[in-house]
Automatic annotation (TrEMBL):
Belongs to the CBF/MAK21 family. Residues 60-81 are annotated as: Disordered. It comes from Zostera marina (Eelgrass). Residues 202-357 form the CCAAT-binding factor domain. GO terms for cellular component: nucleus. This is Putative Nucleolar complex-associated protein.
């Protein structure tokens, strides 16, 4: 941690040392990655994210030079005016004082000019730094495509590529997109033994889209394969295992940003996101519903999925029947389905998700009227808003109306069980939850203390054995000494 913080400080304070130390540090990290065959701690390349590069160095340097020249001219004018006034007012002023004053002004000008770095030299250093960084990133990508290897640096590599993709040479774009496509499809049957995590595969898709958007005019790449991977990764995602922040970023970059999607693909993602929201946590469900809302707003024809017609939606494409198990979103036939999932989500225990689902359900009926209020936030903001670590779970604030339901007499002949919420008070339920989780925490604390106690006992037993062995050795030595004396 100390080394990483020192390197980040060097990279962020580049103006103090002129950039030469930055180039040397990046070269050393690159050589270390090469020597250890990409088997290093992830923080060793995370420090690259602290680097900053100028897009147009010449323009900024020219303006700085102009400002410097103007300030120099002003200083020389002030010096000349002061000298003239001194000569006019005090003729007894010696030449030594004038020379000393002039030297002082020249030293100040030299100090100012010494801190200004030449634009060509600065561009040369930044070019060397960039080439070393991208060499490291491509080495990590090629190493990650091998089977049965550790990929500890892949996550940091993908984050760095996403940040510096606009600075990459266009000659390497096709190779980069090929590597990303192969890594994103590593979970398929023909992945040649490459098994990446779901979050890492999503990051590959995110980097591909960022590279494409930063170089849209120069690249002609079909991103359909990455859409297919995201469509299938939504089924493989697990909340406790994978990173929800990466999922939210993938939804924003690939589905929310950019232009209007193909109608078949948009309908497939809308249907899958609605189904996805039923089975996962609050944060993931809210991010998925926000993305679903954006897709419906961008693709107005997909609003027909909200119509509950007999036999499915009012539109149909090449595939007449909805195929939920299809791997290609264009072949799923989602236009023939209905978003019945929103009806269940409108009864969600979380009021935020329930209101969002209800608002989306009414989008088709309020097209000509004032649209329903839906928070205009990104999937990432939605995920952070309902993350378990930031906002604790809250029960509904509405008091239960126990008089609403009455228990019928046995002569009625109906035998059913009332819900637990109708039989219990909210305060009692909260107290039970608190006591339950307090007991769970006490059990865990007790288990931790027992483990520490066992370790302490084991260490004490070892110490007692050591003392006994040392006592026996001393007793033997004493007896030998007595025998020798006799």
């Amino acid at each position: 941690e100390l080394c990483c913080s020192a390197l980040k400080s060097i990279f962020s304070n580049e103006d103090k040392h002129g950039g030469e130390v930055t180039v040397e540090a990046v070269r050393l990290i690159t050589n270390s990655v090469k020597i250890h065959n990409c088997q290093l701690h992830p923080d060793s390349i995370e420090v690259f994210l602290s680097l900053t590069f100028d897009d147009d160095i010449g323009r900024s340097q020219s303006t700085a030079k102009e400002k410097g020249n103007k300030s120099k001219k002003r200083r020389w004018k002030q010096v000349n005016e002061e000298q003239k006034s001194m000569l006019g007012n005090d003729k007894k002023l010696s030449k030594k004082e004038l020379i000393a004053k002039t030297r002082h002004e020249v030293r100040e000008d030299l100090k100012v000019s010494s801190f200004a770095v030449d634009s060509a030299e600065r561009r040369r250093k930044q070019t060397e730094t960039l080439s070393a960084i991208f060499e490291t990133y491509f080495r990590i990508l090629k190493h990650s495509m091998e089977s049965d290897v550790s990929r500890s640096l892949l996550a940091g590599c993908l984050r760095g590529l996403a940040k510096f993709s606009h600075l990459l040479d266009l000659d390497f774009m096709s190779d980069l997109m090929g590597c990303l496509k192969k890594l994103a499809s590593s979970g398929d049957c023909d992945s040649n033994g490459i098994n990446l995590k779901v979050s890492e595969r999503m990051q590959c898709c995110i980097v591909a889209f960022k590279v494409m958007r930063n170089n849209f005019d120069a690249l002609n790449v079909d991103l359909q394969d990455f859409f297919i991977q995201l469509y299938n990764l939504l089924l493989e995602y697990r909340p406790q295992r994978d990173q929800g922040e990466v999922l939210a970023e993938a939804l924003k970059v690939m589905l929310c940003d950019g232009k209007q999607h193909d109608m078949q693909r948009a309908a497939a993602f809308i249907k899958r996101l609605a189904n996805f929201s039923l089975f996962f946590g609050d944060a993931e469900a809210y991010a998925a519903l926000v993305t679903l809302k954006v897709l419906l707003q961008k693709n107005s024809k997909c609003l027909n999925l909200l119509e509950n017609d007999a036999g499915g939606g009012s539109l149909s494409g090449l595939v007449v029947k909805y195929q939920p198990e299809a791997t290609d979103p264009n072949l799923s036939g989602a236009l023939a389905s209905v978003l019945w999932d929103l009806s269940l989500l409108s009864k969600h225990y979380n009021k935020t998700i329930a209101s969002m689902a209800s608002s989306i359900s009414t989008m088709s009926t309020v097209q000509t009227q004032t649209p329903a209020f839906i928070p205009n936030i990104s999937p990432q903001q939605a995920f952070r808003e309902l993350s378990f670590g930031q906002e604790p779970f809250k029960l509904s604030e509405k008091p239960l109306n126990l008089k609403k339901r009455k228990i019928r007499s046995q002569s009625c002949g109906s035998s059913f069980l009332l819900p637990c919420m109708d039989m219990a008070n909210e305060n009692d339920l909260m107290s039970k939850f608190q006591s339950h989780f307090t007991a769970v925490r006490k059990f865990k604390e007790n288990e931790r203390l027992r483990i520490e106690l066992n370790k302490a006992k084991a260490s004490l037993d070892l110490y007692e054995e050591y003392r006994k062995s040392e006592g026996l050795k001393k007793e033997k030595r004493r007896k030998l000494i007595e025998i020798e004396k006799k």
